[in-house]
Design brief:
Layout (H helix, E strand, L loop, with lengths): L18 H16 L18 H25 L2
Length: 79
């Protein structure tokens, strides 16, 4: 994403309904089943269902930015 470019990205405790919340909560259960002490095992990114090339590219940039921020935070916690 370009520096200064703003997107509506915010934390939420609501993954939506039906398939979205099923995927998110199933992911949490699976991680906790494997390691009950894990603190932040899963993240769900809900993106609008637009199919225009520009929308898909924006979604890709937001997802990569979020993954990069999560990785950076994880690496900081290992120091």
């Amino acid at each position: 994403m370009l520096v200064g470019e703003k997107k509506d990205v915010r934390p939420s405790n609501d993954a939506g309904r039906y398939l979205c919340d099923f995927i998110y909560y199933t992911s949490l259960v699976e991680y906790w089943r494997r390691d009950p002490d894990v603190k932040a095992p899963a993240m769900f990114l809900h993106v609008p269902g637009r199919i225009e090339d520009m929308d898909i590219e924006t979604g890709r940039k937001v997802a990569l930015g979020l993954i990069g921020a999560m990785l950076e935070k994880t690496l900081e916690s290992l120091k």
